[in-house]
Amino acid sequence: MATRSAVLAIINPLSGTTSAEQKKLLQDAFMRQADALGFAPEVTQTSYAGHATELAAEAVKRGVNRVLTIGGDGTVNETAQALRKSATSLGIVPIGSGNGLARHLGIPLNPLKAIERALKGRPVVIDSGEINEYPFFCTAGFGFEAYVAHAFAKEPVRGLPTYIRSAFRSFWAYKPERLVVDGQEKELFSMTFANAGQFGNNAWMAPTANIADGKLELCEIRPFPTQAAGMLTWRLFNKTLNQSSYWRGHSITKSVVEANGPLLIHADGEPLTLPTGRAEIRILPGSLLVLL
Ligand SMILES: Nc1ncnc2c1ncn2[C@@H]1O[C@H](COP(=O)(O)OP(=O)(O)OP(=O)(O)O)[C@@H](O)[C@H]1O
């Protein structure tokens, strides 16, 4: 009898607002579907932050073909870190609050359909980015978006309503920053390095970003009067932000951003601080296989 191909599902028990029972049902559905399709399925839960990277790295070592991540963008990022530059493909089962990479790639937001896609889909090559030593697959950024990521991380409850509340509060507290971008000093409200076109929740910062073109879109929002905030928000969700006079963007393969003090950043929505105040951003073309 032919050996069954191994498929591992990594689930973050804390992702999103899905209950423990719903997550158990998803695990069972994954085991059933994978078994019916002729795979040798395994499922494992993360026990701490960073655990998904370790579990996925071990799967790569064992030659597991497909690794599914059942979680939000943070867990997708941790899993994908270990699968970069390997022959193991990533399946995304989105149950987070933003699901930026899944939405950009057109992966179903219904987790059962996403499991089916990951099991039946073919590996497609996409790019990834790096900001200093931190890999990202969707977006990384500075300014307001990093400020919100740091504020959101302090909230005890996840989910979209909490994110909106954090963003609204941050808008009144945040002051645009002076950054040196590739040698040019600028005052910016926000700045994104976009591999995918959106942050999540269909908030399109880089409407024309192509995830497999070997480039990142560098998108800047310059400071704007308070009364323009409504229109900019509407454009963000309407996929027309690039038509605003406050938005500017171009493609890059590498870039350097510097500040006078520690830099607040985010990588796929995870808040990070760069104590040196210097960030080197680069693209890693064709570095990840995603099941689509
Ligand atoms: N068992 C665990 N205990 C504590 N933290 C964990 C555990 N497993 C994973 N994590 C951390 O939880 C973080 C958030 O998870 P994830 O992104 O999947 O969900 P989310 O935040 O609800 O979704 P989104 O990123 O879409 O908002 C991950 O970055 C990961 O480091």
UniProtKB/TrEMBL annotation:
<dbReference type="GO" id="GO:0005524">
    <property type="term" value="F:ATP binding"/>
</dbReference>
<feature type="domain" description="DAGKc">
    <location>
        <begin position="2"/>
        <end position="134"/>
    </location>
</feature>
<dbReference type="InterPro" id="IPR001206">
    <property type="entry name" value="Diacylglycerol_kinase_cat_dom"/>
</dbReference>
<keyword id="KW-0808">Transferase</keyword>
<dbReference type="InterPro" id="IPR050187">
    <property type="entry name" value="Lipid_Phosphate_FormReg"/>
</dbReference>
<dbReference type="GO" id="GO:0016301">
    <property type="term" value="F:kinase activity"/>
</dbReference>
<keyword id="KW-0418">Kinase</keyword>
<dbReference type="GO" id="GO:0005886">
    <property type="term" value="C:plasma membrane"/>
</dbReference>
<dbReference type="InterPro" id="IPR016064">
    <property type="entry name" value="NAD/diacylglycerol_kinase_sf"/>
</dbReference>
<dbReference type="Pfam" id="PF00781">
    <property type="entry name" value="DAGK_cat"/>
</dbReference>
<keyword id="KW-0547">Nucleotide-binding</keyword>
<dbReference type="InterPro" id="IPR045540">
    <property type="entry name" value="YegS/DAGK_C"/>
</dbReference>
<keyword id="KW-0067">ATP-binding</keyword>
<dbReference type="InterPro" id="IPR017438">
    <property type="entry name" value="ATP-NAD_kinase_N"/>
</dbReference>
<dbReference type="Pfam" id="PF19279">
    <property type="entry name" value="YegS_C"/>
</dbReference>
<protein>
    <submittedName>
        <fullName>Diacylglycerol kinase family enzyme</fullName>
    </submittedName>
</protein>
